[in-house]
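Repro:
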Amino acid sequence: MVETPKGLRLHIGLFGKRNAGKSSLINALTNQKISIVSEVAGTTTDPVEKACELAPIGPVVFIDTAGVDDVGALGLARVERTRAVLEWVDIALVVANARDFDECESDLVEHLRKLGTPAVLVNPAFLADSTEEDNAAGMTVEMLRAYGIPVVLTDAETKAGIADLRKAIIDLAANRIPKDRALVGDLVQAGDTVVLVTPIDTGAPKGRLILPQVQAIRELLDAHAKCLVVQQDRVAESIAELRHPPKLVMADSQVIMDVAAQTPEDIPLTTFSIQMAYSKADVIEMARGTAALASLEDGDRVLICETCSHHPQKDDIGRIKIPRWLRQKTGKDLQIEVAVGKDFPVDLTPYKVLIQCGGCVVTRRHMLMRLRAAHAQNVPMTNYGLTISYLQGVLERVLLCHPEALKAYRDALTK
């Protein structure tokens, strides 16, 4: 893997009306022609993503979105997609012309404030010309600053103000964006040995490992820990050959029952997916949500959420295995649906429980947005690893690595 995955990049979205200058601005920021620039309103339809480097932040993704003032049936659909992106970006650039700043932009700024999203108000109107009439708009700039977010004046054509905008983004990234949580590094110290169990089956990508496995190996190397990578048929043998017991065994969720049987009870055990819940979302809240699986009844609707859009495998984990195991465990006639990609249903109330994938291709903020929406509608959410461990009867054991999550699960079962 050469490039940093998008799920580990800072996501910066550009929002505003049609023809506000969003596409020109993103081209100026990246020094590339990423987005089509036209005087025709509504040129940008679906969100356009571009991964690049922004020093000294590092890898980022810029997202150009459709205008929030689009009209018509198709236009309203575009606005919905734009507002969906607004919910999970790490930093928002609100592109607005002070001459026609109105409720469209003020609503954007207010919504970002409610979400707690760091933002910059980018005004491209003032540097291209500077007549006395334009200078009178300086009062408007002061009014914009009253919104409490940085205001940067730019001209995408001449690149004036672009350096100031980059600095504003860098300052927000340094001071307002929480540090990423480790996937496994918090559980080990230098010199510890960790056994990683990575099955190589028909679902494994040819010639490489899946992203969480790669992340775990890199974190263990960064922590100066020792990493032993095996398949599920070599776990007991590998542990027995070690001079000292491993500090941790971390397995693919699909083989967790087999791995648990081979791992002594005194050795901590977890799964890649459960650690993704810790790293990318909230493992305590998701463990609490797992308890909902114990009370499923005939006719209950279950939504399986996959953030990536991979081609379904013959024995796909989300579409085939989990539904099969869920019906076998509960003995109930369940209605199981699948939502794929970054789109997330607005109304979650028809569902008894949501089962989310690990989310390796999206950011932590995106995952927390989903969890926040579920919580607001009183719909429990769990994830693949927690669900599979519950269905295989080993959930309490694998949650010993996260005592607060184990307590939340047990408490939810008794309610």
